[in-house]
Amino acid sequence: MSLATADVGSLPILDDFDGDRTNVDRATLDKLSVGLDYPCYPQLPGSASNPMNMGLQFLIPLSKVEPRIQIRGEEAALLSDEIRPPSDPIGVERAEYYVNFLRERELVGRVKGVKACVTGPFTLASYLNRKSLMTCGASKPRVVKALAQVLSRSCKRLSELGFNLINIDEPFLSVMLGRKVLFSYDEGFVVEMLDILISEISEISAVHVCGTVTPLIRKVLLDSEADVIDHEFAGTPGNLQAYTGNDLERSEKFLAYGCISSVKPQVETVEEISESLSNALKIFGPRILVKPDCGFGGMLGMSEAYELVLKKLENMVKATRMVAAGRVSGARN
Known about the structure:
Layout: H1 22-33, H2 56-63, E1 69-72, E2 75-78, H3 93-104, E3 115-119, H4 121-126, H5 141-161, E4 165-169, H6 173-176, H7 187-198, E5 204-208, H8 215-223, E6 228-232, H9 245-251, E7 254-258, H10 270-284, E8 288-291, H11 305-325
Parallel strand pairs: 3-4, 4-5, 5-6, 6-7, 7-8
Antiparallel strand pairs: 1-2
Helix pairs in contact: 5-7, 7-8, 10-11
């Protein structure tokens, strides 16, 4: 895992999974073409007329078996706190298609492993009645617990499919774990909910949290059973102070190090990324997985965004291989 490369999932190209899947197939092949070690299945943004995002990917199929959740366009309404987890996994259709696509074309041997992304229970709950932060689904412990059970079945299915790295995406924790924990939760509850999912992951588990790593985020992720803790560093350089190499060694965790911006159209040079990685090795030691800050779906609509993103990823892979070849520069043994 040390200095392996991965992407976060989304690219600035419209989702067409329910259509001819031209964009989905293109994104899959392009991720392989840049040389990523752990390419994630494409998690592409939808359009205004056909919305899709990391919340709807799981809430739309859940709403089909749970009438207490209703979807209208991009909004998801929660009609009751009593959500009944279905027996079958939800939101895994894109992942199933991805592994079959790679196997049918004999492409599996081109990568070290395959990555899947699962929207975490707090973030998924935050999409329910999301117009009011303090009364959204994430404020209701029974809803969060039910969604954790739902998503644990998805994680189990992804493990059965052979995904080697499963990332639990929890950007909402950057809101929830500030100076104190919102909604009167305690840290133990947050760890417990994350570990419900992690317990069903048979290989490498990761948790991604965007933005500034607060002391609460740091504690929760180090206390969790996740193998990898995943953050932004290119856009949030203050996070370089969040952990030490000793923290990673003691907790036996890897750090997924975001080294290229997921919002700026400027392409980072190989030299800039190499310098960033060398600095990270000096600070954190060798327990580093290399990745972009976040997904690139937010760049949809920018001029030539898709081509720029591929170049960013290509330079990231080149820089990582350069640093790995002579990585003793500041790395701990």
